Amino acid sequence: MDLRHAVASQEQGWYLKLMAPNVKGPGYAWLDPSRLYCHPQALQDCIEDLVQPFQDEAIDLVAGIDAMGFILGAAIANFLQKGFLAIRKAGHLCVETVSQPYRDYSARDKLMEMRTDAIVPGLRVLLVDQWVETGGTMRAAVQLVEKQGGVVAGVAAICIEDSEGGSWLKKHYKWAHCVPPHLMPQFNAHYLDSFQAFDAKRGLQ
To answer: Where are the alpha helices (DSSP H) in the chain?
Structure first.
């Protein structure tokens, strides 16, 4: 079935099968999670699954990480009726910023920055990204929030892999992702069973 005919179900994380595998080879991420955003019920269920663990938490602000974290972060902020803060790659904000170096999932050294007028000491921030593979990007966002006296209320992503960095985040912060425990071995191995039925030209068959 293609995206237009994908049927929602009550199975936890049913929408994960909509994600597309990498067909372009090295230099790209191993999958494209954003395909599930094209299905209205999949996007809604994904947001609800990420928010559920934080329903009883005090959250003042949602922050999304450049760039794909903007989509989920803004959607979660809207769901929670909270403000949204964009954490940017360096060089895009024309206001006063604080910065943090980090190494991303592709082992490239980068610089992340955040405006200095959005967080006050004690403000509780939910950090959102699309995916956590090595954990370097999310950890840099944590450091930016904490540098300014903010409190990280939690971290959320479609998947937080069981890498060294991902495991560190899970140990030190409240976290949420969409992957049921029985599917985690596939995600950690970077190959999903659902890929077998995937046709790059026509979607899921």
So the answer is: 40-51, 69-80, 136-147, 164-172, 184-188
- Using left for φ > 0, alpha for ψ between -120 and 50, and beta otherwise, residue 203 falls in left
Strands 124-128 and 61-65: parallel
Q: Can you say how many angstroms the Cα of residue 31 is from the centroid of all Cα atoms in its chain? A: 13
Contact by Cβ (8 Å): 186, 193: yes
Cβ(130)–Cβ(110) below 8 Å: no
Is the CB of residue 73 less than 8 Å from the CB of residue 128?
yes
Mean pLDDT of the chain, nearest integer: 94
Q: How far is CA 119 from CA 15, 57, 145, in A?
A: 34, 18, 7
Give tens-digit pLDDT for 121-154: 999 999 999 999 999 999 999 999 999 999 999 9
For the question of whether the overall pTM of this predicted structure is more than 0.70, the answer is yes
